[in-house]
Design goal:
The complex is a heterodimer of chains A (298) and B (327). Chain A is built from eleven helices and four strands. With 298 residues, chain A is mainly alpha-helical. Chain A starts with a helix and ends in a 14-residue tail after the last helix. Chain B is 70% helix and 1% strand. Chain B has a two-stranded antiparallel ribbon. The chains are: A mainly alpha (298), B mainly alpha (327). The interface between A and B is large, with 43 and 45 residues.
Chain lengths: 298, 327
C-alpha cells in the first residue's frame, strides 16, 4: 500500500504538466473559440523537438544544465514557427463557423500532424533521460522522490502565475480580454483582432510545446503520445470550465489526483478514472466548475 | 390569368418525391448492387460491405447532427453492437447473421438508453466531449476485461443465415447482400423519420430551441429519442462489421474510430441519407488505396481531404444533389 504522500506527489507531478498543457488549450478556446484537437500534437512536437535539441546538446559535450535551455528553445521554436503558420495559413479561413465544425478542422490538423511527426522523427521511441537527474533527489520519510518532479511543479506554478498576470495586469492582456469579450467591439475600438488571435494561439501552442518539452525526460517520446495528452487535457478544461485559468488549475489537480489514486490503488481503473470524474462533474455542473452560465440567444 | 400569376412564383424546389417512389428507387438500387456483387472481385464486395455497415453508424451521427449536436463517441455503440454479436456467437452459439445484427442494435440501444436523457441536456462541444468520454470509458473497460480478450480482442466464426450454413466461398457475398439490405432498410426508415413530425422538430431544434419549446415541442424528448435511435443504428453497424470481419477488439470504441464516423457524417452533410453511404464508401476507398500506396501517410491524406471538404463543400456531398429551397 503506497503512502498518501506518494500518491499526492505523483498526482501533483501529473497535474503540473497537465495544467501547463491545459492552460494553452483553454487560452486558445477562450480567445479564438476553438477547441483545439491538435493541441496534443503540438505537445508531441514539443517533446520531439526537445529530444532532438537535447540530443545535440549532448553530442556537443555541453554542460547537462544547458539541456534545460535546449528544452525551452525547443518549445519556443515549435510555437514561433508552427503557430503563426497554422493560424494564418489555415484556421482563419474557418472563423465564424460552427464550434463543432472547428473541432473537426483541428481534428484534421491532428491527423496531418500525426503523420508528419512520424515522417520526420520515425516510429522509434526517443529517450531524453539526461535532464531528469539534474535536480537530484529528495528524501521525505523513507521514500526518495525525484527532484525533477518538484521542478516541474514549480514551472507549472510560475507559468500559471505568468499567464494570469499577463492577462489581467498588462496592457496586452487587457486587449486580449477585450477581444474575448467581444471581438467585434474590440475591432471597432481599433484593436487588431487578427493579431491578437495569432498571438494568443501562439502562446497557447507554446504552452502545449513547453509541456511536451519538459515532460520529454519523463516519458518515452513516441507516436501516440499526442492522443493520450489531448484526451486528458480535454477532460481537464471541461471539468474546470472552458476558458478559465483557475478552472484549468483545479481541473488539472482533480485529474492528476484521480489518476494517481487509480494507479496506486486500483490500476484497473487507470484508463477511465479521468473520464468518470469528468462525467460526474458535468452531471452536476454542465458548464464545468468555473464557467459562468451564458445567456441563451433567442 | 391565374396560371400566369402562379407560374413565375418563387421557383419551388422540386417537390420531394413520394415515400413510395423513394422506397422503390432504394430497393431497385439495392437489387442492382446485389446483382453487380456477383461479378465484383472479393475485395470490392468486402469494401462495400464495410462501407455500408459503418455508414449505419454515421447515419446515426447525421440523425443527431440534424438536431445540431455531433457525437464524438459513436464508437461506443459501434463497439457495443460488435461485442454483443461476437459474444452471442462465441458463448451462446447463436450464429444467425440477421439475428446477431438485431441483437447488436438492441444491446447498444439498451446500454445507451440510460445515458440518453442525461446527454440530451448538452449541446455543442459539451455533447461531443461527453459522448467522447463515454466511448473512452467503454474503451478502458474493454481493454481491462480479460474475458473479452483485453487489448487483443477475439475472433468469431462464420455466421449462418436463416438456418442455412454458409460455405467459405459464399459467406462474403451473403454478408454483402445482407448488409446492403439492412442498410437500405435503415436508410429508408431514416428518410421516413427525417420527414416525420419528430424529424422536423429535430431540424427546428437546430434552428432555435426556445421557439420549439414555445410551440409546444419537447426539445429534450426529441434529443433523447434521436440519441437512442442513433445507438440502434450504430449497434447494427458494429454487429455487421464484426460478422464480416470475424474479429473485434477495443479499438472499435477508440476515439479515432469515432472520429472517422464523424468524418463520414460531415462529408455526407445532413440532408441526404444516400450521401451517408456514398461518403462512407469514399472513406473506405481512400483508406484502402492510401494504405496500399502510401501506408505511412494515409492519415495525412485523410486530414487534407477533410479540410478540403469542410472548406469547399460545407453542405457535404448531399448538397451536390439536394438544393435547399432559397427563402
Amino acid at each position: 500500500m503506497p503512502s498518501v504522500l506518494t500518491i499526492l506527489i505523483d498526482g501533483l507531478t501529473y497535474a503540473s504538466w497537465l495544467f501547463i498543457v491545459a492552460l494553452g488549450l483553454t487560452l486558445v478556446f477562450g480567445v479564438l473559440k476553438i477547441l483545439n484537437m491538435a493541441h496534443g500534437s503540438f505537445y508531441a512536437l514539443g517533446a520531439y523537438a526537445a529530444a532532438s535539441f537535447v540530443g545535440w546538446i549532448a553530442s556537443m559535450k555541453m554542460e547537462p544544465a544547458f539541456s534545460l535551455v535546449a528544452m525551452l528553445l525547443a518549445a519556443v521554436a515549435v510555437a514561433a514557427i508552427l503557430a503563426p503558420l497554422t493560424e494564418r495559413g489555415l484556421l482563419r479561413f474557418f472563423y465564424g463557423r460552427d464550434e463543432v465544425l472547428l473541432v473537426l478542422v483541428t481534428y484534421a490538423m491532428f491527423l496531418i500532424m500525426e503523420d508528419v511527426t512520424k515522417l520526420i522523427w520515425g516510429a522509434n521511441p526517443y529517450y531524453v533521460s539526461e535532464p531528469y537527474s539534474l535536480f537530484g533527489s529528495v528524501d521525505i520519510g523513507h521514500q526518495t522522490y525525484v527532484g525533477y518532479d518538484f521542478a516541474l511543479l514549480a514551472l507549472a506554478i510560475v507559468t500559471g502565475l505568468a499567464v494570469w498576470w499577463g492577462l489581467n495586469r498588462t496592457r496586452h492582456g487587457k486587449i486580449v480580454l477585450a477581444v474575448i469579450h467581444s471581438a467585434e467591439v474590440a475591432s471597432s475600438m481599433g484593436v487588431n483582432v487578427s493579431r491578437v488571435y495569432m498571438l494568443a494561439f501562439s502562446v497557447g501552442i507554446f504552452l502545449a510545446a513547453i509541456g511536451g518539452a519538459f515532460t520529454a525526460p519523463m516519458i518515452s517520446v513516441q507516436p501516440g503520445v499526442s492522443v493520450g495528452v489531448i484526451i486528458v487535457s480535454f477532460a481537464v478544461v471541461i471539468i474546470g470550465g472552458l476558458g478559465s485559468i483557475e478552472g484549468a488549475a483545479i481541473g488539472a489537480l482533480i485529474v492528476g489526483l484521480a489518476r494517481s489514486l487509480a494507479v496506486h490503488i486500483a490500476p484497473v481503473a487507470e484508463l477511465f478514472s479521468i473520464y468518470i470524474v469528468m462525467a460526474l462533474v458535468l452531471m452536476f455542473r454542465p458548464e464545468g466548475l468555473f464557467q459562468r452560465i451564458q445567456a441563451r440567444k433567442i | 390569368m391565374a396560371a400566369t400569376i402562379t407560374a413565375p412564383a418563387a421557383p419551388r424546389a422540386k417537390a420531394a418525391p413520394s415515400p413510395a417512389r423513394i422506397a422503390l428507387a432504394g430497393l431497385g438500387f439495392t437489387a442492382l448492387l446485389a446483382l453487380a456483387g456477383l461479378f465484383m472481385p472479393k475485395w470490392l464486395t468486402f469494401l462495400i460491405t464495410m462501407a455500408a455497415a459503418q455508414g449505419l453508424v454515421s447515419l446515426g451521427i447525421v440523425l443527431l447532427m440534424r438536431g445540431g449536436v455531433v457525437s464524438f463517441g459513436q464508437g461506443m455503440v459501434f463497439a457495443l453492437g460488435g461485442y454483443a454479436a461476437a459474444l452471442a456467437y462465441n458463448r451462446l452459439g447463436f450464429t444467425d447473421a440477421l439475428g446477431l445484427t438485431l441483437l447488436g442494435g438492441v444491446t447498444a440501444t439498451l446500454v445507451a438508453a440510460p445515458f440518453a436523457p442525461l446527454l440530451a441536456r448538452y449541446r455543442g462541444i459539451f455533447f461531443a466531449m461527453l459522448t467522447l468520454a463515454l466511448s473512452m470509458v467503454t474503451y478502458g473497460l474493454l481493454m481491462k476485461i480479460e474475458v473479452l480478450g483485453g487489448s487483443d480482442g477475439f475472433n468469431t466464426g462464420r455466421p449462418t443465415l436463416l438456418g442455412q450454413t454458409l460455405s467459405d466461398a459464399r459467406v462474403g457475398y451473403v454478408m454483402y447482400v445482407l448488409t446492403l439490405v439492412i442498410a437500405t432498410a435503415m436508410a429508408l426508415l431514416a428518410r421516413v423519420y427525417f420527414d416525420s413530425t419528430r424529424g422536423l422538430v429535430t431540424l427546428a431544434v437546430r434552428e432555435n430551441e426556445l421557439r420549439v419549446e414555445y410551440l409546444g415541442g419537447s426539445v429534450r424528448q426529441a434529443m433523447t429519442i434521436n440519441f437512442i435511435l442513433a445507438a440502434f443504428a450504430g449497434g447494427c453497424g458494429g454487429a455487421l462489421v464484426v460478422l464480416s470481419l470475424g474479429h473485434i477488439d477495443p479499438n472499435f470504441s477508440y476515439w479515432t474510430t469515432s472520429g472517422e464516423f464523424v468524418f463520414v457524417a460531415i462529408l455526407a452533410g445532413s440532408q441526404s441519407v444516400l450521401a451517408v453511404f456514398v461518403a462512407s464508401t469514399v472513406l473506405e476507398v481512400v483508406r484502402s488505396f492510401s494504405s496500399a500506396y502510401f501506408p505511412n501517410t494515409w492519415q495525412l491524406a485523410l486530414g487534407l481531404f477533410l479540410l478540403l471538404v469542410i472548406r469547399f463543400l460545407p453542405g457535404g456531398i448531399g448538397s451536390l444533389w439536394i438544393k435547399r429551397s432559397k427563402k
